[in-house]
Amino acid sequence: MTVATGAAAFAKGPTAPAKPAPRATKGVRQVPTFCDICFWKCGAIASVRDGVLWKVEGNPEDPLSRGRLCPRGTGGVGAHFDPDRLKRPLIRRHDRGREEWAEVSWDEAFAYIATKMHAIKATHGPEAVAMFAHGIGGNFLKHTLKAYGTPNFAAPSFAQCRGPRDVGFRLTYGEDVGSPERTDIKNAECLVLIGSHLGENMHNSQVQEFADAVGNGASVIVVDPRFSIAAGKAKHYLPIKPGTDLALLLAWMHVIVTEELYDKAYVAANGFGFDQFAATLGTYTPEWAYPETGITPEVIRATAREMARYKRTLVHPGRHATWYGDDAQRSRAIALLNALLGSWGREGGFYTPVSMDVPGYPYPPYPKPARPKVDNPDNRYPFAHEAITTGIREATITGKPYPIKGWFVYATNLIQALPNEAETIKAIQNLDLLVVVDVIPSEIAGWADVVLPESVYLERYDDLNVEWFREPFVAIRQPVVDAPDDQKPNWWMAKKLAETLGLAHYYPWKDIEEYLDQRLTNAGLSFAELKSRGIIRGAPQPIFTSEGAPLKFETPSGKIEFYSLQLEKAGFDPVPVYHRPADAPPGAFRLLFGRAPVHSFSRTQSNRILADMMDENEVWLNADVARRLELKSGDYVRLKNQDGVISNRVRVKATERIRPDCVYMVHGFGHTARGLKHAYQKGASDSQLVTRYVTDPLMGGTGMHVNFVTLEPEAIHG
Amino acid sequence: MQELTITRHNELIDPVLSIWSWQIPVYLFLGGLVAGIMIIAGYFVLQRRYRHTDFSTFYLPHIALVLLSGGMFALFLDLEHKLYFWRLFTTFQPSAPMSWGSWLLMIVFPALWANTLIRIPQPFQGRVPLFDRWSAALNQRPQLIKGIGIANMLLGTLLGMYTGVLLSSFGARPLWNSAMLWMLFLVSGLSAAAAFVHLITTDEYERELLAKADAAFLTLELFVFGGFISGLLTSSRVHIEAVRLLLDGPYASAFWVLVIGLGILVPLGIQMLAVNHRVKHTPVAPILVLLGGLTLRFVIVYAGQFSHWT
Amino acid sequence: MARFGMVIDTVRCVGCMDCVVACKTENDVPEGFNRDWIAYDVTGTFPTLHMEIRSERCNHCDNPPCVSCCPTGASHVHDVGGVVLVDADKCIGCKGCVASCPYGARFIHPDGYADKCTFCIHRVEQGLSPACVAVCPTHCMHFGDLDDPNSDVSQLLASRKHHVLMPDAGTKPRIYYLT
């Protein structure tokens, strides 16, 4: 056992990889795979030149990327070469969070984990282990933990991201919007974006379709406190006061209903409770909405009429929807507005996604957990249809409804993903075991007891991607180059851990190639063909209902629920009701955050290629306000939130492109993990300042745009 | 208002061009100084000063050779791909002033050196018999000596012009993009050379003559500056913005105080008083002129890099 | 002879920098340097703003000052398509070409020679598009022969409003921006 301290344990030597594999041959070799820099899973073709990874390009056969990756995917090469990568398994040597480690062998790591897991099972039952995962790579570890006997799996993508949206749409249409979103952006004649900064939020297919729509001359309406990239393409830009979107949505619906601009045939054929819904809109006039939103009645009317003018109008449901705690109801309002415009099931609206029939691997049945999931006791959040990360965190702190003593964290940096870092750390201190599987030494890895270094996607097989999309296809991820050090693929870890735990019978396959071959054979597909092409497409199927044909909905009424009896029964507003958000304290700004096209969450800042595009974030500040505060672009400031938390120093971007009452930052910067040498303390972390959040009563989502900051010149802190 | 955000951040380019630091102004100054020296030395050859003194035809060209070598060494230090410098002499690029310049320098060296054969001073005679023989042969052909004088004046003029043309050919740098720049650098080179000879010569006549010449060159330089500035001020927006860098922009204090004030007006006043025998000759004026000439190159090179198209 | 140029649709471009990343990996552009970049050009006062987003690079000018000022012939106009290239083995690193470019398109490679966009001539000669054009997820970039009236680029220029960068600098740039 060798001992290493702090960051040194994470990265030895300035640059490790780039060494050609022994079997390196001259010339260029190409391997199809699919991307993992975000979770969109675009089909890619990696090129290896003289044995060294060279570039990654889109696979022309791939319906998601249409042969063109986004900047992060193109920069995927940098993940392989990242000198800050985790290299060997690590076991904690000191207090949690001190980032002091012993490098251990894989066997030692698994033996340590298994001992702890046996102890947890004996004392608290297997349900006391929970797993947080993001992305397809978590599938095998989930399998191992299900075999171990826990039902507790959660991803921040629900309660910290798209959950409220999916709940709002489920309550209305009986179905999720899904991921990739089932939006037919490219065929929209009118596209409404509410806080969705497409183009900065770089979900490949969506941005491609957005460009198509803009290129086709679609009328784009953008609602955002910040003049986003998308706003730059808009015919109407509505600089809304943050937190008041629901007021605008209600006023729009008021105009569309009172002026009878809605698709009457569609609503009559598919709507449930329309009259009751319409009756609630009476007071939501544009004049009422004006002081709330700051958008003039003329603009509200003009944009409402603009939406109704076209047959193909899409009000985009958004993605990161956890803003103010009323997010499921706001999303429901978006769903209802779409319903008025008849966009569900229509071209230029929402399509019906299709997928290939590829059966799962025929595993033995899992043991039945003795206790239900821990995250949502007594169905506190009645419309949460996925597990709530913050619910697991809460149970870990309180021990109720039952204790949680072990966490597995796969590829999600919980410190930056969950609101209120202090609560996350408090929960971690209650654990007997925290295992983090990651490719880089993220903040959450810094708190772990055991860190398992995963090979990056270009070095490993993963589970098949059987996507729900415009057309059916299946895609494979396969190794392009070797892992530079002792990193291992997740499937190997999951299998080894299962074997160490005495659960070997859950892994009847020898290696993943056998697993993949089996699944594909069962689906009537060829493993060899998939390996050589990367993607196999199925026969296209219709994804739109022909005009006038009856639509089916999985709601209790079988119709689009303008008035929700489900909500009424559960004690909630059956039609969304607007509640005014709290104003910023004097001198403070509402903290808003979003995405840059060249980074994924907090996971890519040490990727040297992507860091070269953007290596620190800026705090956007209205130019007039900046003048008043005597700040100019490039000045360093620190942000201090309402609870006294002070950020790392961050540069000011004094700009006309934002309202004076809020500031904006790109998420994922201000790293505090010492192993992330290149990203360490560059820029500020928005999540560190999100000490407050408002929980959505419908589904447990955490509204995070409820924090306020003041700006302090860097000089104060030296 | 306009808010332009550019994601490029190339070293030496962003946020402002800063490819050239001290080496290039030093090279341009020494080149201009040597150009002036050649013109003066050539004039003295034509004036047959070599019959009276060793200085202007032997020591002065030698000093010029050292100064020019120093300048070229500074230029060499500036090259980023130093081991490839010989590529300059494998080609001639007619559209490139720098190519003209490198070949011009190849002629300047022998021309300067030829001066030194006209009259080899006593202590150096017999050291290299070949030189003595050439010197003797030269002295039998007065037309050749005259030719050396003319060649020095001509090549000196070309060299002095070249130091300005080099910069003014960069259309992308509005401050340099002036047809007056070659004249400015030539006149400034002449005044610096006059000051330099004035400073180091031991010959009473030469000192007196060059003090007068210096006063004339400095006066001329003021007029050339006037032309340079008004030319840019009456040109396009980018040129006006460029010249304002000197007039009231970030380089204004260096320009007005060091270049115009201490570099021209003050020494001009001193020289006027000196040639009218109101004050004695001191090294003050020539040193100010030399420092002013050097500062001029620095200011023009740096402000020129700062100036840009938008 | 062909005269290669680019036509870039600022209406479609979202400034995602994919072109920049693709150039980096395709051409091994060293860390800290850019052969291409994005300009976000915003005019107006909040909230009445206009934004033009441009993917910028060497304009491969018809009248390239970087070529005329080069003392060694390292900077030259390539036979194929009139593309402006640098022969690293002839470059002495005098930086004259860097100063001569009004677009700031050139930089000094850490190995000492002047470097810049090549229009990915190594790809173009194989019948491929430049890496930036091929990767663009918004399909906002077009590459082709400006002298061929039937080319994609010529057709776009014939049908859409466009402008070039710094026309008054007299360089006759060959990258056009559709507005």
Helix content of chain A: 25-40%
By DSSP, the count of extended strands of chain B is 1
**Total count of helical runs of at least 4 residues of chain A:** 24
Helix and strand pattern of chain B: EHHHHHHHHHH
The mean pLDDT of chain B is 95
Cα distance, first to last residue of chain A? 41 Å
Biggest β-sheet description of chain B: none
Structure report:
The complex is a heterotrimer of chains A (718), B (310) and C (179). Helices cover 30% and strands 17% of the residues of chain A. Chain A is an alpha/beta fold and 718 residues long. In chain A, the strands form seven sheets. Chain A has an eight-stranded mixed β-sheet. Chain A has a six-stranded mixed β-sheet with strand order 22-24-23-28-21-25. Chain A is globular, with a radius of gyration of 25 Å. The radius of gyration of chain B is 21 Å and the shape is globular. Chain B has ten helices and one strand. Chain B starts with a strand and ends with a helix. Chain C has a four-stranded mixed β-sheet with strand order 8-1-10-9. Chain C has a two-stranded antiparallel sheet with strand order 2-3. In chain C, strand 4 and strand 5 form a beta hairpin. The chains are: A alpha/beta (718), B mainly alpha (310), C alpha+beta (179). Chains A and C meet through strand 4, helix 6 and helix 21 of A and helix 1, strand 2 and strand 3 of C.
Question: What is the secondary structure topology, with strand pairs?
Answer:
The complex is a heterotrimer of chains A (718), B (310) and C (179).
Chain A: E1 2-5, E2 28-34, E3 43-49, E4 52-58, H1 71-74, H2 77-81, E5 90-92, E6 100-103, H3 106-124, E7 129-133, H4 139-148, E8 153-154, H5 156-173, E9 190-194, H6 204-215, E10 219-223, E11 236-238, H7 245-258, H8 264-270, E12 271-272, H9 274-280, H10 286-293, H11 297-309, E13 313-315, H12 327-341, H13 389-398, E14 406-410, H14 414-417, H15 421-429, E15 433-438, H16 443-446, E16 450-453, E17 465-467, E18 473-475, H17 490-500, H18 512-522, H19 527-533, E19 535-537, E20 560-561, H20 565-569, E21 589-594, H21 608-613, E22 618-622, H22 623-628, E23 636-641, E24 650-655, E25 662-666, H23 686-689, E26 694-695, E27 702-703, E28 708-713, H24 714-717
Parallel strand pairs in A: 7-8, 7-14, 9-10, 9-13, 10-11, 12-20, 14-15, 15-16, 21-25, 22-24
Antiparallel strand pairs in A: 1-6, 2-3, 3-4, 5-6, 5-16, 17-18, 18-19, 21-28, 23-24, 23-28, 26-27
Helix pairs in contact in A: 4-17, 5-12, 7-10, 7-11, 7-12, 10-11, 13-15
Chain B: E1 2-6, H1 23-46, H2 55-78, H3 97-118, H4 129-139, H5 142-168, H6 181-200, H7 204-233, H8 237-247, H9 252-275, H10 284-306
Chain C: E1 4-9, H1 18-27, E2 36-45, E3 48-57, H2 65-68, E4 75-77, E5 84-86, H3 96-100, E6 107-108, E7 114-115, H4 121-124, H5 131-135, E8 141-145, H6 152-159, E9 162-163, E10 175-178
Parallel strand pairs in C: 1-10
Antiparallel strand pairs in C: 1-8, 2-3, 4-5, 6-7, 9-10
